[in-house]
Amino acid sequence: MDARSALEEIATLLERELANPYKARAFRKAAAAIEPLSDDELAARIADGRLRKLAGVGETTYEVIVEAAAGRVPPYLADLREKVGGGARSGLAAELKGDLHSHSEWSDGTTSIQAMAAGAKAVGLEWVALTDHSPSLRVANGLSAERLASQLDILAALDADGDLGIRLLPGIEVDILEDGSLDQTPDMLGRLDVVVASVHSKLRSAAPAMTARMLRAVADPHTNVLGHCTGRLIRGSRGTRPQSEFDAERVFAACAEHDVAVEINSRPEREDPPDDLIAIALEAGCLFSIDSDAHAPGHYGFLGLGAARAERAGIPPERIVTTWDVDRLLEWTHRKR
């Protein structure tokens, strides 16, 4: 048992069960603190008590490190494994090659781009899109055009290095503004591989207004995916929220017409769209994108939940863009621009 791996696995499992984010951060911080130490140095610091004084190592993480360094599975980790499970993918979930919706610490995610890429790779993905929020979502530290341009430079460098072992696609989760326009400049949207368009405000608007808003966004040639279309919350620490009302037949017909995929958001507190709307989108001929909406590395483990819903709905795998290889995916995302 490797101490750093034990700490990282605990953080991942905590994220997967939607525990308080500060818990997972504490374990990732401890893992980073011991990263520079060789096994011998770590053992020496445990033996002479210096490890307790190392910045980033607390009482619980110290106990985990000591157990793992001795070659034992820490009880804390064993309990989480039994409670949360291993997250192995099977069925349709095993066919997923990528994820078009994830966030880093650049907006409201909890970790670095590199950590998010590692989390996606750990569940077997071949490619992942980084889609931090757009500027109007200030509560989520949305990216201005200038910050997004800086992020693109970093993504290009990371992808060129090839050290991450997974393809990084530059993207955005862009707000659909009240008039249906997209919350980023057309120039910046044109530089991205992936644009997920989502409504985050005025979710209780009347159905005609919400329908018109979504129809304009879907018709925008930059839009690739309609994200969590109802905005509902059915459980979790943020409470519940009813789904937005809109003309699903018209919106999904527009998605099919404009070659926009309907997202099946895999987060357990969303399960968005509901099953009845998935059926309407399927009948309309839509493509689908099974996404994690990950805000931490462990959240990629949610993909199996979205895949299970797609299987129950009878969606053919070939109509799910996140089962495609990256070349086919990029040909699709760019062909309207």
Describe this structure in words.
The chain has 13 helices and 7 strands. The chain is of the alpha/beta class. The chain has a 7-stranded parallel β-sheet. α1 packs across α4, α9 packs parallel to α10 and α10 packs across α11. The relative contact order is 0.13. The mean pLDDT is 96. GO terms for molecular function: phosphoric ester hydrolase activity; zinc ion binding. One of its GO terms (cellular component) is cytosol.
Secondary structure blueprint with pairings:
Elements: H1 3-16, H2 21-34, H3 39-48, H4 59-69, H5 75-84, E1 98-99, H6 113-122, E2 127-130, H7 145-161, E3 167-175, H8 186-190, E4 194-198, H9 207-219, E5 225-226, H10 248-257, E6 261-265, H11 275-284, E7 288-291, H12 303-313, H13 326-334
Parallel strand pairs: 1-2, 2-3, 3-4, 4-5, 5-6, 6-7
Helix pairs in contact: 1-2, 1-4, 1-5, 9-10, 10-11
- Judged by helices, strands and strand pairing, the structural class is alpha/beta
Assign an overall shape.
elongated
How far do the termini sit from each other? 50 Å
Q: Tell me the number of structural domains.
A: 2
Tell me what portion of residues adopts beta-strand conformation: 5-15%
Strand order of the largest sheet: 1-2-3-4-5-6-7
Poorly predicted sequence stretches spanning 5 or more consecutive residues = none
> How many strand units?
7
CATH superfamily membership of the largest domain, which one?
Answer: Metal-dependent hydrolases
Number of helices, where a helix is a run of at least 4 consecutive DSSP H or I residues: 13
Helix proportion range: 40-55%
Rg, nearest Å: 21 Å
How can the largest sheet be summarized?
Answer: 7 strands, parallel
The assigned CATH architecture of the largest domain is Alpha-Beta Barrel
CATH topology of the largest domain: TIM Barrel
Return the string of H and E elements.
Answer: HHHHHEHEHEHEHEHEHEHH
CATH class of the largest domain: Alpha Beta
- What is the residue-mean pLDDT, rounded to a whole number? 96
